[in-house]
Write a structure and sequence with these properties.
Blueprint (H helix, E strand, L loop, with lengths): L2 E8 L1 H9 L1 H18 L2 E6 L7 E4 L6 E4 L8 E9 L3 H8 L9 E7 L11
Antiparallel strand pairs: 1-5, 1-6, 2-5, 3-4
Length: 123
């Protein structure tokens, strides 16, 4: 079965709304994770630390430049993910609709290509 990555993306505003009621959000998220485990589709799930604690390695120039977070130009932040093993994109979308998310958040659904689909050197 194909794998799909449900990427949690939020803005400063949606992240603040989530943090305002973090206990309820964590309860809802644990419930969602339990549902995906019972359905046998969850492969992995992780949330990410505060973007202010991260760095960006920028390859725009000849030499990589490392910049500490937060990132002034960022409109949406990648906050975490769920990796699901489901039969189709539509099934992944149905799960994405059930992810607990604050108003203004988005869930991006992306298929993870299988090993046989990744281009090999010389192809």
């Amino acid at each position: 079965m194909p794998k799909y990555l449900l990427i949690m993306r939020g803005t400063d505003e949606s992240n603040a709304a989530m943090m305002a009621d973090i206990d309820e959000m964590m309860t809802r998220t644990r419930r969602f994770i339990e549902e995906t485990v019972r359905a046998g589709v969850l492969l992995a799930a992780e949330g990410l630390d505060d973007p202010a604690k991260g760095v960006v390695v920028d390859f725009s120039g000849g030499t990589p430049v490392v910049t500490d977070g937060p990132y002034g130009e960022t409109k949406e932040l990648f906050g975490g993910f769920f990796l699901l093993d489901v039969a189709s994109q539509q099934e992944a979308v149905e799960w994405a609709k059930r992810v607990p998310a604050a108003a203004g958040s988005k869930i991006e659904v992306r298929r993870v290509p299988g090993e046989d689909e990744v281009p090999q050197a010389g192809e």
